[in-house]
Amino acid sequence: MKNIILEANNIKKRYDKEAVLDLDNIKIFESAFNFLIGPNGSGKTTLLNILSLVDTDFKGEVIYKGQPVKKVNFDLLDLRRNFSVIWQNPYLFKGSVASNIALPLKLRNVKEDEIASRVENIAKKLEITNLLNKKSDELSGGERQKTSIARSLITNPEILFIDEPNISLDYQSTQYFNDLFLRLTSEGTTILLITHDLYQINNFAEYITILNDGKVVKSGSDIELDY
Amino acid sequence: MLMEYIIQALKGAINLIFTLDPEVSTVVSTSLQLSLTSTVLAAIIGTPLGIMITKFDFTGKHFLNTILNTLLSLPTVVLGLLVFSFISRRGVFGEWGLLFTMRGIIIGQVLLILPIIIALVRNAIHDVDEKMYKTAVSLGATGTQQFRLLLSEARYGIIGALITGFGRVVGEVGVSMMLGGNIKGYTRTITTAIAMETNKGRFSFGLALGIILLSISFIINYIIYYFQSGEFK
């Protein structure tokens, strides 16, 4: 059994007056391919926002390596900078693909020459060097997603949150990124993936949490997928 | 006969423009000075207000937005009349001697374009996708960095708002006439000069200023078009 890197207890989240999340506990295991699955509207993305600390307006506690992030005097920004999120419909900023990929490093005040070399490396790794000088609004859906993946990986995050990334990707790219994510977990990155893709679930999932109606209905490393 | 009159006037107008006639130059220079100053002041006041109205929720926000939208089509003479009542000798600010001065015109012009700049900046900020904030936070942006990213994403809209404001003041006549008094060499602007000189029979002079105003308007619209279509990237 791997160590728990992130855990959330008694999470309650409401939009207007409607409860969208009311779950007792969810665990994310370190250096593992964690899966979060469930029907549409079950609260998966809301939970991802909370776990990734993008949304801090909720009741309950998120525990990072055994310490509650709200109670212990964590610098939320520092902690958040250990994480990265790949969104289902990524937002790209105006400007070139290169400037989008470089942005997280610029926000961390990394030196320009280091930024340039890291952008080049990640672009080579993801085979998108040809896109670097393109404007973000000239990209296809798949190219946008690849750019956002490069942008999320450039900081070498400790935990990578991924929200249904396959929607815009073709079969070949999906296979490529499946392999990449698998390699990342073997290198020590923790991944939490939201997906409906049974192939991914059957072949890559180490730990699965099934969410329904804002509640965890099943979780574990070996569970029957019947929801 | 009429055609000949128009052709002669046009020739005279072109001559006035290309010989850099001192009177034409003074009027154009006064107009541009006033318009630029008014636009800069309105931008300094209006841009933060437009951002605040979009980003903060407060009681009366809907009402304020309705008022703003109404003020977009405020007739310049009505505004001129209103400001006149405050800065004329018997007005509340009469002692400050603002009437028939450039400062008086600037006050009127700032008030004229303030609602335009606030409303257009509000729209530009509002148009930035909500996903931008979530993305900025997830990428590790501080509060200040999030604000800078927001301004950067809305920059074409904000610049478009300022240029639209400039276009409005450079072509207005009501405020300049009522608050400036159309004093030669001092508060005479392109539009007030066209109105007066044409009435006096100096058709070529009016036409020269009209061509210049139209050219300024064309340039402004050309720039707005490019900013709004996002060509400047």
Question: Secondary structure elements and their pairing?
Answer:
The complex is a heterodimer of chains A (227) and B (233).
Chain A: E1 4-15, E2 18-29, E3 33-37, H1 44-51, E4 59-64, E5 67-68, H2 76-80, E6 83-86, H3 97-107, H4 112-125, H5 141-153, E7 159-163, H6 171-186, E8 190-194, H7 198-204, E9 207-212, E10 215-220
Parallel strand pairs in A: 3-8, 3-9, 6-7, 7-8
Antiparallel strand pairs in A: 1-2, 1-4, 4-5, 9-10
Helix pairs in contact in A: 3-4, 3-5
Chain B: H1 2-18, H2 22-55, H3 61-71, H4 76-87, H5 102-127, H6 131-138, H7 143-153, H8 155-170, H9 174-180, H10 190-199, H11 203-228
Helix pairs in contact in B: 1-11, 2-5, 2-8, 3-5, 4-5, 4-9, 5-8, 5-9, 6-7, 8-11, 10-11
Structural description of this entry:
Chain A has helices at 44-51, 76-80, 97-107, 112-125, 141-153, 171-186, 198-204; strands at residues 4-15, 18-29, 33-37, 59-64, 67-68, 83-86, 159-163, 190-194, 207-212, 215-220. Chain A is an alpha/beta fold and 227 residues long. The model of chain A has no long low-confidence stretch (mean pLDDT 91). Chain A has seven helices and ten strands. In chain A, helix 3 (97-107) packs across helix 4 (112-125) and helix 3 (97-107) packs parallel to helix 5 (141-153). Chain A is globular, with a radius of gyration of 17 Å. A six-stranded mixed sheet of chain A has the order 6-7-8-3-9-10. A four-stranded antiparallel sheet of chain A has the order 2-1-4-5, covered by helices on one side. With 233 residues, chain B is mainly alpha-helical. Chain B has a single domain, classed as MetI-like fold (Orthogonal Bundle), CATH 1.10.3720. Helices cover 76% and strands 0% of the residues of chain B. Chain B has eleven helices and no strands. In chain B, helix 2 crosses helix 8 and helix 10 runs antiparallel to helix 11. The model of chain B has no long low-confidence stretch (mean pLDDT 92). The A-B interface holds A 49, 52, 54, 77, 80-81, 83-85, 87, 89-91, 93-95, 103-104, 107-108, 135, 137, 151, 155 and B 129, 131-132, 134-135, 137-142, 145, 149, 152-153, 155, 230, 233.
